[in-house]
């Protein structure tokens, strides 16, 4: 958004943490969250932004205190190392794991989130060069070229009888009725 970019450029102070006039909205609580431009030049992984959680991060707590931002402790740690949520509304008293699952479920119910994903996920080969890899539903026809397997024939099932006697050759090559299937066109 060019308006946000303009505000951030105007309110950015080189080498200093900057509290901006922009706020983010916590969609579960409808609480406004201040947006801070950090003087820190590197973040974990390949991130260029992060959410600061002062009650679990000493660095975030330092920034919040320096900026005069109020925050509540939300995790209580017991001598045995177990943790429970405090000051967390209906999640108070839950273990972190139970609270995470309850929060995810609430986000799913409100259509504002769901299970965690990783920004580190990369494209991955869906069919490996081994017989048990995911069969790609494409038929190679000499006349028609590549033809998708008809929807009614999905999912493509691998054959049950496989011989692993020959090394360096796909075991599927010995099952001619599976490899040499008719063109659906």
From TrEMBL:
Record GO biological process: leucyl-tRNA aminoacylation; mitochondrial translation
Lineage: superkingdom: Eukaryota
Domain (Aminoacyl-tRNA synthetase class Ia): residue spans on this chain: 106-147
SUPFAM superfamilies: Nucleotidylyl transferase, ValRS/IleRS/LeuRS editing domain
Pfam families: tRNA-synt_1
Entry EC number(s): 6.1.1.4
GO cellular component: mitochondrion
Record's protein name: leucine--tRNA ligase
């Amino acid at each position: 958004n060019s308006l946000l970019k303009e505000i951030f450029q105007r309110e950015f102070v080189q080498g200093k943490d900057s509290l901006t006039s922009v706020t983010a909205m916590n969609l579960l609580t409808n609480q406004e969250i201040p947006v801070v431009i950090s003087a820190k030049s590197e973040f974990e992984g390949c991130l260029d932004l992060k959410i600061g959680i002062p009650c679990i991060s000493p660095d975030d707590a330092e920034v919040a205190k320096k900026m005069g931002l109020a925050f509540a402790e939300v995790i209580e740690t017991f001598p045995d190392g177990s943790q429970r949520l405090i000051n967390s509304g209906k999640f108070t008293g839950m273990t972190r794991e139970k609270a995470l699952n309850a929060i995810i479920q609430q986000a799913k119910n409100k259509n504002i989130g769901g299970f965690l994903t990783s920004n580190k996920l990369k494209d991955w080969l869906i069919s490996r060069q081994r017989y048990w890899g995911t069969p790609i539903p494409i038929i190679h026809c000499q006349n028609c070229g590549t033809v998708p397997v008809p929807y009614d024939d999905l999912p493509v099932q691998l054959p049950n009888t496989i011989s692993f006697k020959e090394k360096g050759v796909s075991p599927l090559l010995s099952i001619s009725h599976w490899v040499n299937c008719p063109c659906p066109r």
